[in-house]
Amino acid sequence: MGALDGITIVSIEQAVAAPLCTARLAEAGARVIKIERAEGDFARGYDSVVSGDSAFFVWLNRGKESIVLDIKRPEDAALLERMIARADIFVQNLAPGAAARSGFGSEALRARHPRLITCDISGYGEDGPYRDMRAYDLLIQCESGFASVTGSPEAPGRAGVSIADISCGTTAYAGLVQALYERERTGVARGLSVSLFDTLAEWMSVPLLHAEHGAGAPLRTGLRHPMLAPYGLYSTGEGEGVVFAVQNEREWARFCEQVLDVPALASDRRFASNGLRVANRNDLDAAIAEALKPLDRAELIRRLAGAAIAYGSLNSVDDLSVHPALRRVVAMAPGGELTLPASPLRWNGETQAELASPALGADTSRLREEFE
């Protein structure tokens, strides 16, 4: 039994942000009824790498039920209304205004069903000058300035995963758990709205504060931290890379003495504080590179571990697949069984139970009968 056992969510959802939000709710034990068009959530067609199924879809839709509805048809709209009447939460990420035009606007639904919590997920919000702009993950990464601080010094870059969608979906999930707690405590059900742009803009607070109050936004530094040094990927004399991070002056002194074997570097005026090390990064990197020339990767790691300096490897996705820290969970997809990374949440040390992602409309007949 999960923490949200007995909670029912009805969701008109597609793509990533809203499905991720409701996937987290399903993992917590909630019943999630996914409303799909006849052609299905378009994320079903993003790829076919998992035995014919989309990697995005099987990740984001485990534990849900799928019903195909055409809410432009009066009988299907009436069925959806009956489902919502028995639900605790209604989630939708249609274009702004589309749900309201179909008779399922959040404010109207809460007026009809006072204990219903609603959640509207959009690109730029339900109002404002960008309300009707189409919003996909990479577009939001660019519009929010995120891409401008991501990538190499030569060119901006996209985050390697759909970070705008993921951040928005997890924010919506946290908000809905908060709303459920508030309803339990006060009896009041509220409407939540979350946008991809607002979420990623809030994540950009540190670069924005530097731009507005400091010397300017951080520069792109590739696999180097723009505001901490040394912090990034460094190579040994043999060309093998290790990522390591120095966070404070105590670590800096240990790093110089025990890793670089150049204790005098710790008192060098150019490197006497993190701010100075960042300002003199080229000189710093040159000094580190010179000290690392005699070392191979194994010796560098031995020294970093001995000095209690944080370090890691620049792994590939294939490396992740066999990483000793990777926890997996068995899942079922329409094409068969697979394993996925387990939920990051563990309750009393336990990993989530096996969940299945639904075939399109797999539960249509049963749900029509249940809600007649």
Brief digest:
With 372 residues, the protein is α/β, with parallel strands linked by helices. 37% of the residues lie in helices and 17% in strands.
Model description:
The protein has 372 residues and is of the alpha/beta class. It contains 15 helices and 14 strands. The strands form four sheets. Strands 3-2-1-4-5-8 form a six-stranded parallel beta sheet, sandwiched between helices. A three-stranded antiparallel beta sheet has the order 9-10-11, with helices on one face. Strand 12 (328-333) and strand 13 form a beta hairpin. The radius of gyration is 25 Å and the shape is elongated. 31% of the residues are buried.
Which stretches are low in confidence, meaning pLDDT under 50 for 5 or more residues running?
none
Question: Taking strands numbered 1, 2, ... along the chain, how are they ordered across the largest sheet?
Answer: 3-2-1-4-5-8
Shape: elongated
Share in helix: 25-40%
Radius of gyration: 25 Å
Write the layout of secondary structure elements.
Blueprint: E1 8-12, H1 17-27, E2 31-36, H2 55-60, E3 64-68, H3 74-85, E4 89-92, H4 98-101, H5 106-112, E5 117-122, H6 137-143, E6 151-152, E7 155-156, H7 163-186, E8 191-195, H8 196-203, H9 205-213, E9 231-235, E10 241-245, H10 249-259, H11 274-279, H12 281-292, H13 297-306, E11 310-312, H14 317-321, E12 328-333, E13 336-341, E14 355-356, H15 364-370
Please describe the structure with a list of short key phrases separated by commas or semicolons.
372 residues, alpha/beta, six-stranded parallel β-sheet, three-stranded antiparallel β-sheet, elongated
